[in-house]
Structure formats: structure tokens, C-alpha cells
Amino acid sequence: MATATETKKTPKRSVAADSAKGSGDQAYHVDHNKALDRWDVVDDEGRVVGHAHHVSEAIDLAVREAQHAHGRGHDIMVCVEQPDGTYKLAWSVR
Questions:
Q1: CA-CA distance, 19 to 7, in Å (whole number)?
Q2: Which residues have a Cβ under 8 Å from the Cβ of 36 and sit 6 or more positions away?
Q3: How many domains does the chain have?
Q4: Which of 17, 41, 58, 63 could make a disulfide contact with 52, Cβ separation 3.0–4.6 Å?
Q5: DSSP state string for 30-63
Q6: Rounded CA gap, 49 and 62, in Å?
Q7: Residue 51 lies in a domain
Q8: What tens digit of pLDDT does each residue of 12-35 get?
Q9: How confident is the model at residue 36, as a pLDDT?
Q10: What is the largest CA-CA distance in the chain?
Q11: Could you tell me which of 26, 71, 72 has the C-alpha nearest to residue 49?
């Protein structure tokens, strides 16, 4: 597990995820969906692959998805949206 780092938010993707994509890594984002009052787990392609009403449950779901992708040979990170719109790294594996 990596230490938390902060990145600036860009539309539906963090700076870390954009730079990681070029290196073969993948990222799952836990985004706060205020309109639906839930936390969405979003993959690199912008697809919502799951959601939860509590951030901790959404992080758990994102980590499970990331572990499956890692089992297929991908380097993965999970980033969580913060109240100020930045993302913090919650989990990663190489």
C-alpha cells in the first residue's frame, strides 16, 4: 500500500491517472456523485463500475476491482476525490 499523495482534478480524471495511463498503469477513481448522493467507482474509460453510499464501501469496491485487474497483469492505483476536488491515492500495487 502506498502513502497518500494528492493530485489536481481534471475532468473525470486525476493528473496521476493521466500520467499513469501512458506508463501502462490503470486507475480506479472514487468520485463523489452529489446529484445521486453516492460515491461512484469509475474506471480509466469513464465507466461507472460500481457505487456505494459511504466512501469507505466505495473504496473497498474499488480495491476489489483493482485487485482483479492486477491479477490480469496490470499495475493499479485507487484514487479518492477529496472535498476540494483533488484526489488522494488510497491504494496501489505494481
A1: 11
A2: 51
A3: 1
A4: 58
A5: EEEETTTTEEEEE-TTS-EEEEESSHHHHHHHHH
A6: 9
A7: yes
A8: 444 444 433 334 589 999 999 999
A9: 97
A10: 35
A11: 26
